[in-house]
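Sequence only, no structure available. Ideas?
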Amino acid sequence: MEPKILKTEKDYKAALVELQKHMHSKPGTQRSDRFELWAKLIEDYENVHYPVEPPDPIEAILFRMDQEDLKPKDLEPYLGSKSKVSEILSRKRTLTLSMIRKLHSGLGIPAEVLLAEPIETV
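Reply:
I predicted one. Tokens follow.
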């Protein structure tokens, strides 16, 4: 199959098969070039048909805490007092711009994620 713009789910599935064929190709070869081309075509199709929504800001903070083995106390330099940390993590208080900047700078959480509206819990 020749590489082409993927327009249908059938095209997409066929492209996945083609990608698999070139998965273990040696870098710098025509096969590796084909792999990159198929990967780009698949990525473009997925971005349109299967967009990934940014995570909830609080979930992103909790995820980073888990990744870095951080405790709520470790967030105090970014969020303020122990009570503010608790209120943020329990969704009783929203992040301020200053908090967002500190979390982005200190923990590397993307600012666009932290700026998103938090998911409301019932």
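Helices lie at 9-21, 30-49, 57-68, 76-79, 82-89, 97-107, 111-115.
Hope that gets you unstuck.
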